[in-house]
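Example record used in the benchmark description.
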Amino acid sequence: MTETTTHPAGGGGEETAPTVRPVLHYTAKNTWLNDPNGLVWHRGVYHLFYQNNPFDNVWGNMSWGHATSTDLLHWTEHPVAIACDEEEDVFSGSIVVDHGNTSGFGTEEDPALVAIYTSAFKEGSAHQGTQAQSLAFSTDAGMTWSKYAGNPVLDRGSAHFRDPKVFSHEGPAGSCWVMVAVEARHQQVVLYRSANLKDWEYLSTFGPANATGGEWECPDLFPLPLDGDPDNVKWVLVVNINPGAVAGGSGGQYFVGDFDGVQFTADPDSLVPADADGNVDLRHCLWLDWGRDYYAAVSFSNAPENRRIMIGWMNNWDYANSLPTSPWRSSMSLAREVELATVDGLPRLVQRPVLPLDCGEPARTIQNMELHDALLQVPDAVPGSAQLIEAEILPGTARTIAFRLLGAPDGSAATVLSFDAVTSRLTLDRRNSGNTAFHDKFASAESAPVELDDGVLRLRVIVDHCSVEVFAQDGRVVLSDLVFPLPGNLRTDLCVEGGTAIVRKLAVTALS
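Model output (structure tokens):
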């Protein structure tokens, strides 16, 4: 095995914008990446595979890149794992640990890792114009891969059948592998099962439902105990969509329901009825993230202690190929641990960022400070570190609570995270954040409804050079956006307008 680089988030190479490469968010050293693929934990190591162009920093030549980590924060980039060739591009998919050696690629004592990916067949191949599911396998813990000679293993003759997520399922008939994939342009999730990962039997179809304004991609299906109760397990179906997300362009929606080994059935409260014209109010759908830059999110297979950990692509197809970075382009989100909790009487996902176990001492801590129509300057962001802001604020009589992030020293520019106490909406506004002119769809403001807990606004904000991820009310609402501040724009302010608020807690910590 030869490692190409070791770095927190893909560092190295000639940088045209050296201040914006993130510290805790994975980037490839000098190439393009998009969807996370094949997320798997194996022998104490988290493996992140991903859509990668090995030859350029724009989309194309789709292959599986590869990085590993022991803490989900600091990553080692490895050579390309599964490469495109003259027959196929290697699109998204998943990896399982074949513990029972059902595929025959390994042994029961030393199980193989098996990747199930989409072959996007090129002109001149026997399957040209179609997308079908194929296998690759590794017998050295994910470091080298071989494509299965019998590919493809599942072919519907479709041009848009892709993104298989496979998991092991124990049901009344015993153990089997279950695949969820999509017929992307029909807005359908299709389910199959197999005993050996090679021969697949159709089970059922889910959809269209809720947001259907674009192609469905990158599905995921997994069980979670409600409120931690192992006797009350629900199933969550994640379906990413592009375009047609609530903030515009790309995004991820989810449904809560039940899976009986054959069919997923969404709970009625997960479904949004269409109006007389067939339109669905996207604000009533269930979204993983209300921002512009969290897409193709999927979860790890085989994660220890039955944790459900997800990573998404931190980008949006509206402007993905135009981001003002070089030689690298695009990053992953922070890893997020997801749980299912009762929110307003209904089962809903909550998400919490995976952060260092020891975040260190805060640069500043404030407790029980009263602010009346005031601006409070807090520690600036630090180059080479991410910034963690943790706050509990009682808005009181104030109309607006706002953090100005990555601001200009003179206050002329900033990314603004604001809570409007009258409308109960949290807004992340990057219209005056710095460099927004590289694409006409980039400058934007995203908002989400937020209900206070006993009058308290709780925020956990991670600012990492070119990104802002906001986890509100203990992760019930999430907003994620890319930003490209101008050099030297590091100032952070807390602003209270229209009355008096009490800062019950504010801690600002540099993470690296």
